[in-house]
Amino acid sequence: MKSQVIRLTTVIGTAVLAASIAQAQYTENFDSYATGSDITGQGGWAQWANAAITDSAISTAFSHSGAKSLATELHADKVHTTSFTSGHWNWSVWSFMPATTQLPQWAVFLSSYAPAGPYFWVAQCELDPTLSRIEFDMGPNNVCGGIGGSQFGTVFAPLVVGAWTEIRLDIDLNADRCQGWYNNLPVGQVWQYTDGITAGFGLAEIGTIDLYANDNTLAGDRVYWDDVTVSVNANPTPECLGVGIVYCAAGTSTNGCVPTIGSTGVASASASSGFTVTLSNSEGQKAGIFFYGRSGQQQTAWGVGSSSFLCVKAPTQRTPVQPLNGTTNVCNGSYSIDMNAYMANNAGSLGNPRFTGETFDGQFWYRDPPAPKTTNLSDGLHWALKP
């Protein structure tokens, strides 16, 4: 029997899956199989550890695409292996939990699997109707500054019942990063893909999906699965949602100040406050503004002879002018603006209406005669919105 929600306490050995660079995506919609048949032995699907257990059926009761899906119940523990070893991918499966389902089932993602072992669990999503929630377990090495939860990172979200819902991993194998998604919303934060929920480190590989019914004893207590895919993601490395990340370089002011941009709180697509962008170590008593854009980053000379760089691509949005506090000719000027509040209070501003995953880049501008162009700029700040 396989245990489902654990962080294994022994180091797993080297995986036996062959490594190959896969360029094409994998797709399974279960439509090519006979209705009522067990998936074991078809299309590369098997029961965990090659056990002689059926407990699944190709069904026409519900489907996300086409006419059929896979129904799992009782001791169903169906696995399918692929091999993707580089690139940026979405690895997903769609789930349907009827309102009549009483017991939990799991979608489990492994980077390595062999029928007799070893195994390496990367992440798993429990669909739990007893608590009306999902439990999403992921690796402990959060690269974005902490998510809380258990020893290996557990995040909860409301369970969707009676509708098809996607469970997805956004995986960058080259950067060794992963972001979990459920119902098109991020679950937790980006973590190190190879440091999964098995102890030690696994391969940077998309390996085996496991659709698991947890050895329950209630016949007919089914969950339906459809559209298992590994598809190319053309976007950059998964974002650290809600977290400000500094980039580019600040210019040096007339009095030798090198201002520093930063942030506190969480950038949100729904909150009306709580994400404050700050400037410190700047010229005191100078007029300044914060401006931002949604078109990406650059590092272009601000002007002839200037040490500053324009770090934000046009078009940009200016926020209101504010005086930098501090002392004239001293590097103790500071400035702050709550960007959650600004976006909530300015419906027509660039980036509204906000949505989860939306990205921004911004920097501060301040008066600084006799510097070139009589102004200077801070370094840049990049952020992406959490829900």
Notes on the protein architecture:
The chain is mostly beta strands and 387 residues long. The chain folds into two domains: 26-232, Jelly Rolls (Sandwich); 245-384, Immunoglobulin-like (Sandwich). It has one helix and 26 strands. The strands form five sheets. Strands 1, 3, 4, 6, 11, 12, 13 and 15 form an eight-stranded antiparallel beta sheet that branches. β20 (297-301) and β21 (309-312) form a beta hairpin. The longest helix has 7 residues, at 339-345. The radius of gyration is 25 Å and the shape is elongated.
What's the arrangement of secondary structure elements?
Layout: E1 26-28, E2 46-47, E3 56-59, E4 69-72, E5 77-84, E6 88-96, E7 105-112, E8 120-128, E9 133-137, E10 154-158, E11 165-172, E12 177-182, E13 185-191, E14 206-212, E15 223-232, E16 245-247, E17 260-265, E18 275-282, E19 287-293, E20 297-301, E21 309-312, E22 316-318, E23 322-323, E24 333-338, H1 339-345, E25 359-367, E26 375-384
Antiparallel strand pairs: 1-15, 2-5, 3-4, 4-15, 5-14, 6-11, 6-15, 7-8, 7-14, 8-9, 9-10, 11-12, 12-13, 16-26, 17-18, 18-24, 19-22, 19-23, 19-25, 20-21, 25-26
